[in-house]
Design a protein that fits this description.
This protein is mainly beta. The protein contains 8 helices and 40 strands. The strands form 11 sheets. It has a 5-stranded mixed sheet, covered by helices on one side.
């Protein structure tokens, strides 16, 4: 995430930083940074690397723990041996943290909720044994459908592919992190509400006291670190960079807070003393922690600030002016600084993608190039390392771990940070059931005398083992043929628009990006059991403008009869179906959806937890769309 930094404050900040930072301008933090004892504790802090429970990868001793696609895994840092500790539906939302001998995690099912209490708290040993439910029916952080689902991604090799078939990476509805400190489990939600009779802010977090017998009981925020915030102060807003309160106390012995003007301080929670860092949270760009060293990047210059001895170091500049920054990752000693290298001849329409680089920056400010020149054309899995700036990556020892999301499988990749890049696939799992097979069909559609529109279809069929399988495949063939016809109709429509403007294709239709795929159909199996199979046919069309037009049609089949099924085949009376669905839709959308649209067989699918319905907002200029998943047991209740 790119952030703005310092503006006119930048010059004054670095001129006076050695004098003013951490002096508090006359204030002091009792028992914190200025004491020799605290300096010793601070210099021994562990690097801040995705281990507060808010992200998908965390380090612990010799192991890396990761969660993705409903799979909680443990990987040995030396051998690379990976063990599946816990598996749930890939639609479920999950956050975990590590404490002593245990993994604590919260999980929310992949359904929307009227009761709004679908989150559960679990504990298990770090080897996956003795799974224990500590608390269920916990208030959810937010509504699942409250966040836009935008599942399409453009691969860097100019081929468009579907990034997320069913909103898997949409984390709405789950707490931002889970963490422990002083026998209190923190389910952290950084949004706030106010009681006008009590001017102190109250967060939407939830807390559980861990009892001596292993049970938990909910406790009030006033009993936690967040309850010690004085009036007018909040946790620092840069949640992706700053440690949570529990993590900060374990590792630093103080808290990072900001006031209503977004000035950043560190605070002693016992005495309440404040010490200004002379930084505003809005001005932090590419901010990262490694032990007691902070990475700051105002504009194109990198500085390291040491929390214990209050020094600011400008790092060596060893990268080309054609380099572009993508992310910084803390290591046990310093940081890895990643980005893209562009040649002088590079242009957006070149066939050769730019290479990636990785620099190592040490706490003394020295820097060296680990390696450079990595590109998609090198045959390495996944996108170049420079793009790995999301929370599905982590550094452990001499290795960089990340999740690769290709078109057919997801996998855990380990990249060696030694003398040469060495990629190793540690674990992989297919996006498609073994009973299915995918066929790709790419086509050029003539566009004028010398140009083409490009379509890409990734089509899924059943492996034909029964007559019913053959009938289902025949139905799918007819569906896919209709998609092809629709694509050709759209291509002709774009051709007619270009007749009045010879530059229409390049200047307008392709103005969205550099991708060469104009029409895309990707089919996934959204559900399969012994009796039912459901196919999700996602389609995108890239016209002029910022956003593609996207949609999805579902097709549910009886695997024994080989026929397409309707919502009424599962739940009977259509009026009862509409009565159950209406409250979910009323809360999710502001426009009216007709009964015919709700009951359209193409609108619904089965999932692990409930019926998923897909709708498009035809009133929106950019064709917004959303899904709602209704629990199966909602239909079991008496109307």
């Amino acid at each position: 995430m790119k952030k703005r930094i310092f503006y006119s404050f930048f010059i004054l900040f670095f001129l006076f930083l050695p004098v003013f930072i951490l002096t508090g301008c006359g204030t002091d933090v009792s028992g914190t940074p200025d004491t020799d004892e605290n300096k010793k504790e601070t210099t021994e802090t562990a690097p801040f690397i995705d281990d507060t429970g808010k992200t998908s990868m965390q380090r612990d001793g010799d192991y890396l723990y990761s969660y993705f696609d409903g799979r909680l895994m443990r990987t040995h840092g030396e051998t690379g041996e990976t063990t599946l500790l816990y598996q749930t539906s890939y639609l479920h939302k999950l956050r975990f943290c590590l404490s002593e001998d245990y993994i604590y995690f919260i999980e929310r099912t992949g359904t929307d909720s009227l009761g709004h209490r679908d989150t559960s708290l679990y504990r298990m040993e770090k080897d996956g044994e003795n799974l224990t439910l500590l608390q269920d029916h916990i208030l959810n952080a937010s509504y699942i459908e409250s966040q836009d689902i935008y599942p399409f991604n453009i691969a860097e090799n100019d081929a468009a592919y579907l990034y997320d078939p069913l909103g898997n990476y949409n984390d709405a509805g789950i707490y931002e992190s889970i963490d422990l400190y002083d026998d209190i489990i923190y389910l952290i939600d950084y949004s706030y509400t106010y009681d006008y009779e009590d001017p102190l802010p109250v967060s939407n977090s939830i807390y559980f006291k861990l009892n001596g017998d292993g049970t938990v009981q909910e406790t009030d925020e006033k009993e936690t670190l967040y309850g010690k915030l004085p009036q007018g102060f909040f946790p620092v807003a840069r949640y992706d960079s700053f440690p949570s309160f529990p993590y900060a106390m374990r590792n630093y012995g103080y808290l990072f807070v900001q006031d209503t003007d977004k000035n950043v301080y560190r605070m002693d929670p016992a005495g309440g003393a404040m010490e200004s860092l002379n930084i505003r949270s809005d001005d932090l760009s590419d901010f990262a922690f490694s032990g007691d060293t902070i990475f700051l990047k105002p504009n194109d210059t990198i500085f390291l600030f040491n929390l214990s001895d209050k020094t600011m170091i400008r790092t060596e500049d060893i990268w080309s002016e054609k380099a572009y920054f993508y992310g910084v990752f803390p290591t046990e000693q310093g940081f890895l600084y990643c980005g893209k290298l562009y040649t002088a001849e590079y242009a957006s329409d070149t066939s050769e993608p730019p290479g990636s680089y990785i620099c190592r920056i040490l706490p003394d400010g020295s820097a060296d190039l680990v390696f450079s020149g990595l590109s998609d054309s090198s045959g390495y899995p996944g996108s170049p390392i420079g793009y790995r700036t999301d929370d599905r990556c982590c550094i452990l020892g001499d290795y960089f771990y990340y999740i690769d999301t290709s078109e057919t499988e997801h996998s855990l990749i380990r990249l060696s940070l030694q003398e040469k890049p060495d990629f190793r696939k540690l674990e992989a799992w297919s996006l498609y059931p073994a009973e299915t097979e995918m066929t790709e069909k790419d086509e050029k559609i003539a566009f004028g005398d010398s140009d083409f529109l490009f379509s890409s279809m990734k089509l899924l069929f059943l492996k034909e083992q029964t007559d019913a399988d053959a009938r289902i495949n025949q139905a799918l063939t007819e569906i896919y043929t209709q998609f092809e016809s629709d694509i050709n109709d759209l291509a002709q429509y774009e051709l007619s628009r270009s007749e009045a403007n010879p530059d229409y294709l390049q200047d307008t239709l392709r103005g969205f990006s550099d991708e060469k795929t104009d029409f895309l159909v990707s089919v996934f199996c959204s559900y399969m059991d012994d009796d039912i199979v459901s196919f999700a046919c996602f389609f995108t069309y890239f016209p002029h403008g910022l956003h593609p037009v996207a949609g999805c049609d579902y097709y549910v089949f009886d695997r024994h009869a080989g026929k397409q099924l309707t919502f009424e085949d599962f739940e009977g009376d259509s009026s009862h179906i509409l009565d159950v669905i209406s409250p979910y839709l009323d809360r999710a959308v502001e426009w009216e959806i007709s009964p015919e649209n709700i009951l359209d067989p193409r609108r619904f699918s089965l999932s692990d937890d409930g019926y998923t319905l897909f709708f498009t907002d035809t009133t929106s200029r950019i064709y917004d769309w959303f899904t709602v998943t209704i629990p199966y047991d909602a239909f079991d209740k008496e109307p």
